[in-house]
Automatic annotation (TrEMBL):
Belongs to the frataxin family. Signal peptide: none annotated. GO terms for biological process: iron-sulfur cluster assembly. The keyword Cytoplasm does not apply. PROSITE patterns: FRATAXIN_1, FRATAXIN_2. This is Iron-sulfur cluster assembly protein CyaY.
Amino acid sequence: MNLVEFHQNIEQVWDRIEEQCDEQGADIDFERQGAVFTMTFDNRSQIVINKQEAMLELWLASRLGGLHFAWNGNDWLNGQGINFWQALAEACAAHGEKVAFI
């Protein structure tokens, strides 16, 4: 994946997060600022998703800790093979919102 594809892919990820949360009625506010996407929950807790351009990675920070994901040609996976979408759903639940990312 080149740099342009990386940024396009991440923008699609961020769009999908917003769409899925809105469709499922989740009470989450979203903010995009440069390489950072922040999800703020009703209880004021946050999940932060970062573009790590130098490594072409997607980073997720939440109450559950921090995870790094790399594109495998099909999906974003971390070193243990955990799918980004699964990790994000678990993080959202830990912050008080049940969201299924399909």
